[in-house]
Backbone:
């Protein structure tokens, strides 16, 4: 074992748990007060993304949109790119008329991406997304319980839920739009976070096989060493996937921007939660179990 | 030396194969409509009549008629699938047309065509000033589903027999129109204009005068399709202009390419020899994944590309786990070749565990999702499986050749400092 490790993850876990608890509380607060900013995938409506060949003044665009009388809308403009969200699901004629009016009044060479979602489908998608997440979590719990032991499974799922909730909280606090790709991102993040957690747990399990655990302090040391042994891998993997996500976020197409953003949040919180939540929670559960053969010291030595 | 030659040969041959096939592969890979423009519509089918039901058969026939109509225009690649009990998903990506504008217009044309279900009408010219057929006497829904049949009449003449739901209605109409034409229209297109010979009181009618069996069968099919009592409403629509689709493809490919280059540099810098091997395996991985896509005839969509890039992340992870493990074993004082063996063995278990958990998540997405969720899941599942082949076994093989060559025995080649190695 290397000797120059300066940071004790187990000893400082309390501080991180407090930070995580505060973030979670903030998240619960944000989600219950402000809710989520649902995109049309989950609330029904029409989203129109327009790529223009010249820059269009926002005021001019607003006048134009008001003239169209298509109901409430929100408008975000960027250079040569305008996104409009109508509360109402437009019918085909309205969509056609809108496009034609835009082409003749604003920019004759504009290109459109139009998404229209009806309210039934929106509700159904929301429901199946939630069920999907639950089923995925259940599958992971069963697999981890089989391959490891139930304590690992519980710790892993706790950290997964934290990690997924962290991303949802961030989206609620910053009012980013929650759409179908966001769900994809959360599910992918769950996949990644469990990856991270499994790698650390795998090392803990391996070290347990050869270790002689006499006291709780031995367990602490073992977890700390396991984290240190896998730390380089955890960090390097997160960096490489972050490279990919950041590239997609900055340079990728508009429709996967939010996906990439959710991935960025999720990757960071996934790595964090496997180190500071999953492993620590497992340690907490493990300490409840009496240590075999050797008498348990009255208190742990941290 | 022999081993190095073997290594170089393996690499050169695989890159040669890739170089040879890649241009074709890239051109042949089918792109989703979000990447080249087109429209995707999810219809929900409802019975036209009160209390009617949407049968699986009626749904399939409606899907077929939609596909036929799109095919008839000859400019698009329509893809019509039924979903669940009462949904039809229609995807049209445009493959012809020289300018983006032309393509967009072609999509719009097909969409207009799709707007209504096949609408069958029997019209007369009663009260029409210009002699055209302006008066609708019977609708498709008045006919029994699937009841139109080709029959042989006297003197081997062909005829199409149709059956209506309401005897009285047909009797009234036919009595009124004796000696006049009762024209059959499908989607406002005149199919046939038989003359009513007599009042039809038994609820069935025959149409004669077809020249060939095919012609008669076609008419029967048209009536059957048109008699489908289904009304379609658009529930979800995504339409992407050709220009915007291309721009998305370009942006995303650029982002993916840039990410790949940065990741390769990162691996080379941090892991030296295993890094070089990892880079080679990553390139092979991407290529095999593209190849599998081509062979599956799968369509690459934007979420698919996102999953692709994530697949690269997973692949890098496998290499990092192995490389880190080899470093650990080296540090513990083992020789290079036994470190390699122990590292590969120990990391394999970890990688499999991690992969299976991701596979569970991807599997759930595949079975529960539709549309973009499904295409994302397909790419993710494919990349996990291919990853095990190309980023677990291939690096192991390549590294073992290099190690056996005896030329890379310095721990520095594996980015381990001499000072870090403990005595056994």
Residues:
């Amino acid at each position: 074992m290397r000797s120059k490790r300066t940071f004790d993850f187990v000893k400082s876990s309390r501080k991180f748990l407090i930070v995580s608890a505060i973030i979670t509380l903030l998240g619960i607060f944000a989600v219950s007060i402000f809710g989520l900013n649902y995109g049309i995938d989950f609330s029904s409506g029409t989203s129109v993304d327009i790529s223009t060949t010249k820059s269009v003044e926002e005021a001019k665009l607003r006048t134009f949109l008001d003239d169209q009388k298509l109901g409430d809308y929100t408008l975000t403009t960027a250079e040569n790119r305008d996104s409009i969200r109508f509360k109402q699901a437009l019918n085909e004629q309205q969509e056609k008329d809108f496009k034609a009016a835009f082409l003749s009044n604003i920019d004759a060479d504009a290109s459109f991406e139009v998404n229209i979602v009806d309210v039934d489908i929106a509700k159904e998608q929301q429901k199946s997304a939630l069920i999907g997440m639950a089923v995925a979590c259940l599958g992971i719990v069963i697999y981890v319980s089989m391959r490891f032991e139930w304590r690992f499974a519980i710790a892993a799922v706790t950290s997964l839920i934290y990690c997924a909730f962290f991303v949802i909280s961030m989206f609620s606090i910053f009012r980013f739009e929650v759409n179908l790709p966001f769900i994809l991102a959360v599910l992918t993040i769950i996949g990644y976070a469990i990856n991270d957690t499994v790698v650390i747990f795998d090392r803990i399990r391996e070290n347990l096989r050869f270790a002689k655990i006499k006291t709780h302090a031995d367990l602490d040391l073992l977890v700390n060493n396991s984290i240190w042994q896998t730390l380089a891998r955890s960090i390097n993997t997160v960096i490489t996937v972050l490279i990919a996500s950041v590239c997609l976020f900055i340079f990728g197409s508009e429709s996967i921007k939010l996906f990439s953003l959710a991935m960025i949040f999720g990757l960071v919180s996934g790595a964090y939660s496997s180190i500071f939540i999953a492993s620590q929670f497992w340690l907490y559960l493990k300490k409840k179990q009496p240590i075999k053969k050797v008498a348990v010291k009255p208190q742990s030595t941290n | 030396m022999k081993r190095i030659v073997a290594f170089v040969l393996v690499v050169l041959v695989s890159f040669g194969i890739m170089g040879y096939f890649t241009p074709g592969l890239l051109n042949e890979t089918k792109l989703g409509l979000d990447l080249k423009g087109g429209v995707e519509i999810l219809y929900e089918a409802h019975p036209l009549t009160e209390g009617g039901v949407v049968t699986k058969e009626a749904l399939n026939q409606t899907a077929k008629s939609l596909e036929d109509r799109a095919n008839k225009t000859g400019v698009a690649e329509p893809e019509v699938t039924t979903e669940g009990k009462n949904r039809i998903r229609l995807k049209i990506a445009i493959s012809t047309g020289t300018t983006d504008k032309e393509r967009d217009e072609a999509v719009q044309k097909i969409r207009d065509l799709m707007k209504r279900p096949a609408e069958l009408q029997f019209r007369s010219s009663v009260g029409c000033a210009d002699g055209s057929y302006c008066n609708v006497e019977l609708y498709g829904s008045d006919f029994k589903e699937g009841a139109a049949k080709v029959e042989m009449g006297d003197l081997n003449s062909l005829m199409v027999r149709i059956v209506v739901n309401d005897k009285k209605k047909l009797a009234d109409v036919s009595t009124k129109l004796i000696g006049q034409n009762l024209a059959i229209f499908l989607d406002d297109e005149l199919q046939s204009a038989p003359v009513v010979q007599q009042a039809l009181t038994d609820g069935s009618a025959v149409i004669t005068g077809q020249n060939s069996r095919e012609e008669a069968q076609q008419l029967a099919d048209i009536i059957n399709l048109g008699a489908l009592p289904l009304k379609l409403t658009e529930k979800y629509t995504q339409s992407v202009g050709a220009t915007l689709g291309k721009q998305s493809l370009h942006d995303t490919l650029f982002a993916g390419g840039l990410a790949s280059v940065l990741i390769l540099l990162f691996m080379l810098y941090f892991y030296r020899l295993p890094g070089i091997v990892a880079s080679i395996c990553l390139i092979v991985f991407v290529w095999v994944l593209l190849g599998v896509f081509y062979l599956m005839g799968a369509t690459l969509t934007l979420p698919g590309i996102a999953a692709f890039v994530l697949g690269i992340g997973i692949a890098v992870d496998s290499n990092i786990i192995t490389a880190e493990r080899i470093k650990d074993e080296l540090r513990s004082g083992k020789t290079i070749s036994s470190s390699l063996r122990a590292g590969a063995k120990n990391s394999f278990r970890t990688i499999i565990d991690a992969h299976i958990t991701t596979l569970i998540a991807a599997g759930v997405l595949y079975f529960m999702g539709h549309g973009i969720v499904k295409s994302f899941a397909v790419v993710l599942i494919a990349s996990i499986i291919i990853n095990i082949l190309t980023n677990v076994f291939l690096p192991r093989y390549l590294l073992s050749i290099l190690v056996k060559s005896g030329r890379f025995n310095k721990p520095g080649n594996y980015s381990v400092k001499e000072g870090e190695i403990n005595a056994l």
Q: What stands out?
A: The mean pLDDT of chain A is 85. The two ends of chain A are 20 Å apart (CA to CA).
